[in-house]
Amino acid sequence: MSDADVLMVGAGVMGSATARALAGLGRRVVVLERSRIGHTGGSSHGRARVFRFSYDDPRYVRMAQESLPLWRELEEEAGEEILTTTGGLDVTPSLDPHVSALEASGAAFELLDPAACRERFPGLTVPDGGPVLFQGDAGVVAADRAWRAFIGAATRAGGELREDTPVERLTIGDDGVEVLAGEETWRAPVVVLTAGAWSRRLLWGIGEDIPTTPTRETVAFFKIPGNSVPPVVVEWTSPPLYCLFSFEQGLKAAEHHAGPVTDPEKEGEVSEASLARLGEWVRARFPEAEGEPHHAETCVYTNTPDEHFILERRGPVVIGSPCSGHGFKFAPWIGRRLAELATSG
């Protein structure tokens, strides 16, 4: 039987960020990962994720504001760029909730009419009509670099990473938690569960539950000409569509919350219907882009009914589920928060 101060279940970006924070506090942390760092079966893989301040809820605006210097801290520690600032656009008939949330948080932004937007971003065509919202702090997080930087910092600070170690069961005891993984049992006063779509099943085993549902989302990549890096674009249709620049891959585009309910154990299958809608949207917004994707893949969302995150402690179990496909941007903030929950009791 092996012991640690804190056991982590799941070494995606959130588990890795939490392990870094815990190891930095001097805790003996062991991270149990069912696959290997960089695997494509969950929600953390790939090269690019959106960073943005613009939300319709000031709580998330403030979280993004607090996350920005933490990303810069990670960059300095890793010695490489992780967050590239490009600016970001929100396209929606009703900008008022975003404007109100940004104003309440003191975040700078601009409202651009379509002509001014096209002048500033010549390769981008936005719909005629009302203004679009431009927020200059938005950008692209290099997801693969971030993942490596978090787990690398954790292991350098004394954390232990066990890959290819799927957790089978949690057991609550008088002095903490036992975690069965393969033929080995691990014991610690507290466990942090950051297992994404697998978390709910593990919680059932100790009589707990969270209202999460995994879905399989389709992501497509389109080649665009020139050397300029376009802004992040989020168009609040139903479902919302978004795009960002993924270095060496071109324009990454996807629908938000459009995929079917899925079993994370199964191989992902790209939606041809989603690809067709994405191609039509990219051709309309980026006329100079190639109209058909050169690559497509899937990503698992772990969704809550209201899209809010679940970050809480229940006895010796800390649950970290930054849900619904919009958590990556907050990873260093969430890592610190889950570390606080794990060490505060």
Report on this model:
With 345 residues, the chain is of the alpha/beta class. Helix content is 28%, strand content 30%. The chain has eight helices and 21 strands. The chain has helices at residues 13-24, 58-78, 96-105, 114-120, 143-156, 199-204, 272-285, 331-344, and strands spanning 2-3, 6-9, 29-32, 48-51, 83-85, 88-91, 110-112, 132-135, 139-142, 160-162, 167-173, 176-181, 184-188, 190-193, 213-222, 232-235, 241-246, 250-255, 295-303, 310-314, 317-321. The protein has an eight-stranded mixed β-sheet with strand order 7-8-6-16-17-18-15-19. A six-stranded mixed β-sheet has the order 10-3-2-14-21-20, covered by helices on one side. It is globular.
Q: Secondary-structure element order, as H and E?
A: EEHEEHEEHEHEEHEEEEEHEEEEHEEEH
Tell me the Rg in angstroms. Answer: 20 Å
Low-pLDDT parts are: none
Global structural class:
alpha/beta
Shape: globular
Q: Please give the order of strands in the largest beta sheet.
A: 7-8-6-16-17-18-15-19
- Ends apart, CA distance between termini: 24 Å
Q: What percent strand?
A: 25-35%
Most strands sheet: 8 strands, mixed
Total helices: the number is 8
Helical residues, percent: 25-40%
Count of β-strands: 21
